[in-house]
Each structure stands twice: as structure tokens, then as C-alpha cells.
Design brief:
homodimer, about 350 residues, alpha+beta, 60s Ribosomal Protein L30, Chain: A, Phosphoribosyl-aminoimidazole Synthetase, Chain A, domain 2, 2 domains, seven-stranded mixed sheet, about 35% helix, disordered C terminus
Chain lengths: ~350, ~350
């Protein structure tokens, strides 16, 4: 079914009704106008292209819409900022129908509602592939943004939650159909796919970490090894990572054998976890861990420490050392301009 | 040549060096942080997809980069606002080389410099098609944004500059090669192509119009007839357009016969002019026209008036009336979410 302009607008309007706080001029004019906040604006954008970041057959429109918002919110969170406004540009091929587009905007709305984010504008187009580009504007108290460049020798390296589940979900989605079906009959299989389809942005957790004296922070989109190497480069430091302490997702540990993957390798180098990676003085760790556990039910794990110099060392359970290569989700320059 | 991540980052860094005013955290972190301004933030975005909005063979990388910025700046201008910060997301196929990407960012930098716009972040990816998504954040004095919804019966309908040149350039770019070559040997031919490749955003002109008491304003991206119908719908009014008064671009008039196009039809329904369309009380017109001519060397032309009710009427030089159909660059929902 071909989707006309009027049908699309009607579909979008149906899922996006409602007044949004802080919006002076919303969807439908040349640009949106919003209220000036009390903090510094924080800006990020992410582009999702069919065939590169997702396959139409393996993610629902609703999950895709929610994920496009969440990955941007995660970037805002990583600065210890609060998301406020979203712009969404969409291009769809002729064979995508109105129901798919409505589901997509339904997922966008869900994720926006979850983070009290107002969708204020965007752009819609035809294209040969589905392209979804989201920009989010957030806000942070002046001078309080947390960058990647503040890590100092002696700081502890910490991560929220657990790692590798999304990469396990990706492996599952590419497994032989019979193996994938068997995996999906298990709770761990469904959990891995859910981690890939519906990542969680750690907005509140990031603020707790910022208050606990974190010196540098970023979100894990391309895998711990790759992203930590970026943090080290930005801060001009090196790192030692105790691999036995890396919090590998339990569902991944459980399913690794059936999926034929190395759970620790995926936890180190798999992408799309959207957990927070941070560095902090040792004394801040226990209070921060207690607050995340009590306030959010989210784990905070120390996985190593920042050292002077450059490069990364992996230390295993027996104390053996090896270089930790910054291998990861570096399929190409994703994120190389920041965001 | 395949472009590695490091090569791309190096290429981009080469063209984007320099400190930017107002930027607290720029390219390279999870998100950008900028100084809080004194006005209300104004947000817009546009997505350009190869094969839909441009063909690689018919626009240079430099022009494409500049145009991607300019069309967003034009949306900010249409709100009577000032552009401040840009985010650029790019996806390129493997067969695009580093030189092309550098040229693209060169064009982006030129257009940003022209409007004192800081490029603060973005995202880079692989894809099967070139995709360029730009978001621009601007600023407007609180309560001074001009929307599409303020037109009142009796207001004059005005446009800046002249119309149809970009559509003429598009016709030229699709003409038979021998005809295109002949056209390009003429000054008008080069002027039409230039209008398509390097549109101009009317930022200063928009502020003059805002001070002159304009009641509604938008930029002309999809053709006068289509865009005026949107302004009328947003304002709940109708319009009468005197077609003989529409300022058809001189180069288009000159080349129309050779190109086999109807110049007035392109001026009414061709897209990508990026001139301003505004409505204003009659008494404001002459002072505004004088100020635009003296300050910018840009024409302001009255093409009709706003009437009560709905729908649009075209009145020709003999006074004959006919419905003016909102036909235009409505290839699909481009811009239907605003922006």
C-alpha cells in the first residue's frame, strides 16, 4: 500500500496528540520553539540506517522507534544531563505501509513519555531504505556536564548493569533458525533479544554517579574495550581491566554454549549495551553502589583502574596480563564525531 | 578506495579545526554542551537522501554539504530566529572516498562560517546510500518567533527575491545532454544550476520583515502554491494571488523556451527556492521593501492578499480568476512534521 502524505500526517498526529510542557511552537511549522531552560543546552544525534543498524525483519517498528529515542537519551545521560526535546526524521520506502509508520511513532512516543521528552519536529521523506535520524536536546546545570576527558590515574573504572546481553541477542538473531527457535523457548533467549530490541538509558543513574564524584563518563555503545580506549585517549591515561570482574549478563552466560559464543568476549567487545562507563576515586564507589542498588535496583561494578601512561591491560583471574585490544563494534566510524 | 574510521576522523578534523564561540563541549564526546543563550531555543532538522533529494552525479560534495546546512538555516530564518549550532550525521557507501567526504565537510564549514554557526557534533556511518541529516539549533528573543499561523484577512502576501530558478536548474539537470550543454554555455543556464546547488538562506532579511510587522512567515521549499496553502491552512484563511505579479527568476524566463518549461508554472510550483513567504498589513510593505533593497539588495514583491474563508484563487493579468491548486514539490511528506 502506498502511503500518501495526508495519510502519514494523520497517522503521526494520531499517536502524537497532546500538549507538551515547554513547547512554544511544536510540530507543523518551519522549526520548533521551546522555552529557555535554566541550564546549558546539551545536543546529540544518531542516525539509524536499514541494513547497517537494523534489519526490518528482525526488529518491530515499535521497538525501532523506541530504540532510536533511547540511544540518543543515553548519550544525553552520559553527560549527566536531562533530555528535553526530540526531533525525528524518517525516510521510508514505498513498500512500508501506514500501520508500520504508526507503530514506529507509537514506539517513539513510548520512549519519549518514559523520559518526559517532547517530540517537537522532524522531517519525513521517501527513500529506498528506511532511515531514522533522531536529535535530542537536553539540559545540564552550568559547568556540571561530565565528559570523557577527566579520568585520572588511580581512579576506579566502574560500569552499571551487566554487559553483553545485546550482543548475545544479535548473535541469536543471526543463529540458524532451529537453534534460534530453541533459544527463544528459554527465558535467557528472550532476555537477550529484549536487551537488543529495548535497551535502557541510565538517566537517573548517571545523575547519582555525577553526585558521587565521577571524573569521566560515557555510555557503552560499541563495547567496553573500544569505549574505554576512547575514554583513555580523551583523558590521556591508560587502564587495567580485571576481566574476571566484568559483569557478564547472566542470560548470556547461560546461553553462550548453545549460541556458540564466548560470553566474556561479547561482554568486552559487543556493542549496544547502553550501560554507563565511568571513572571515580575509590572512596566514592561504595556509596554510589549502594545508592544505585537502592534507588534503581541497578548494579555498579568496579572492573579495574586508571593508570598513568597509555594503552589498556587485561588482567585475568590468575593475575596473568595481556594487552586489551580496543576491538569492538567499530564496524566503521559510528560515533566518531561524538554523539 | 575504502575509507577507514581513522582516515575519516582525520579528514573531518582537518576541515573543522578551530575553537567555536559558545561551545563548552564540542565534537568528540557523547553529546555537545553549549552556552545557554538569552533567547528561546529554535530547533529544526532536514534529512537528505541520495536518489530522492540529490544525485551524486549532479551535485558536488562541497555544494551538497553547504546546501544541507543552508536549508536548515532557512527554516530557522523563517521563524525570524538566528542559527547557532549544527549537528551533522552522515552515512556513506564504501565506494565514496575520503576526498569526497573532505569536500562535503568543506562545504559544511563554508555554510556554517557564513552564518556564524558552530558545528558541535554528529554521527558517521556506512550505508548503501549517501544520507545526510542535519539538525540546527537557533535562538529567538522570547515571544518573537514568527509562525505560519498569524495571517489575517487583508494582509498582503509578499515574497523575497525571485522564484523558480532552482526548479529551472533541476529541469536543466535532467535535460537531454546536448540541450543541457547548450544551456550551460549561457549565463542563464549557469545561474539556474547555481540556484539549485547553492541556495541562499534569508536570515537578515527575515529579521527586517519581522521588525516590519509581518504576521506570518515561512520559507519556500516546496513551491509558492503548496507552501502558501500550508500557511493559509495554519492561519485559517484563504488567499488571492495575482500571477502576473509573481517574481519569476529572470534566468528562468530567458531559458524557459530552450528548456521546454513553463516559467510561471515553475515559479508557482517548483521547489527549493528558499525565499521567504510572508504576510503583512499593507502599510508595512513599502518600508520593508526599501529596507531589504538597501540593506541586502534583495527584492520584496507583493503577490496577492489574504482573504477570509479558505482556498486559493489565482488572478491573471486580465483579471480572470481560477482556483490555485496547492500543487508543488509534494513528492511525498517532505517537511510534513515541520522543519
Amino acid at each position: 500500500m502506498e502511503l500518501s502524505e495526508d495519510q502519514l500526517i494523520e497517522a503521526i498526529a494520531r499517536v502524537l496528540s497532546g500538549e507538551e510542557p515547554g513547547v512554544v511552537v511544536g510540530i507543523g511549522d518551519d522549526a520548533a520553539v521551546v522555552e529557555r531552560g535554566s541550564g546549558q543546552p546539551v545536543l546529540t544525534t544518531d542516525l539509524l540506517v536499514e541494513g547497517v543498524h537494523f534489519e526490518r525483519a528482525s526488529i518491530s517498528a515499535r521497538d525501532l522507534g523506541a530504540k532510536a529515542i533511547t540511544v540518543n537519551v543515553s548519550d544525553i545521560a552520559a553527560m549527566a544531563a536531562s533530555p528535553r526535546y526530540a526531533l525525528v526524521s524518517l525516510a521510508v520506502p514505498l513498500d512500508v505501509d501506514a500501520a508500520w509508520v504508526m507503530e514506529l511513532y507509537g514506539g517513539i512516543r513510548e520512549a519519549c513519555a518514559e523520559h518526559a521528552l517532547a517530540l517537537v519536529g522532524g522531517d519525513t521523506n521517501r527513500a529506498e531504505l528506511i532511515v531514522l535520524s533522531v536529535a535530542v536536546v537536553g539540559e545540564v546545570a552550568p559547568g556540571r556536564a561530565l565528559t570523557r576527558s577527566g579520568a585520572r590515574p588511580g581512579d576506579r573504572i566502574v560500569v552499571t548493569g551487566s554487559l553483553g546481553a545485546a550482543a548475545g541477542g544479535f548473535a541469536l538473531s543471526r543463529a540458524h533458525p532451529s537453534r534460534a527457535a530453541a533459544a527463544l523457548s528459554e527465558p535467557w533467549g528472550r532476555e537477550l533479544l529484549e536487551a537488543l530490541a529495548r535497551p535502557v538509558a541510565r538517566v537517573g543513574e548517571a545523575k547519582v554517579l555525577a553526585s558521587a564524584g565521577v571524573t569521566a563518563m560515557m555510555d557503552l555503545s560499541d563495547g567496553l574495550a573500544k569505549d574505554l580506549s576512547r575514554l583513555c585517549l580523551a583523558s590521556g591515561v591508560g587502564a587495567r581491566v580485571r576481566t574476571a570482574d566484568v559483569p557478564v549478563a547472566a542470560a548470556l552466560v547461560e546461553g553462550a554454549e548453545m549460541l556458540g559464543v564466548d560470553a566474556l568476549a561479547l561482554a568486552l567487545s559487543g556493542g549496544e549495551d547502553y550501560e554507563l562507563l565511568a571513572t571515580m576515586p575509590a572512596e566514592g564507589f561504595e556509596p554510589a553502589r549502594a545508592e544505585l542498588r537502592e534507588g534503581f535496583g541497578v548494579a555498579l561494578t568496579e572492573v579495574g583502574e586508571i593508570v598513568a601512561g597509555e594503552g589498556m591491560i587485561a588482567v585475568d583471574a590468575d593475575g596473568a596480563e595481556a594487552p586489551l585490544e580496543p576491538a569492538g563494534w567499530d564496524h566503521f566510524p559510528r560515533g566518531s564525531l561524538g554523539a
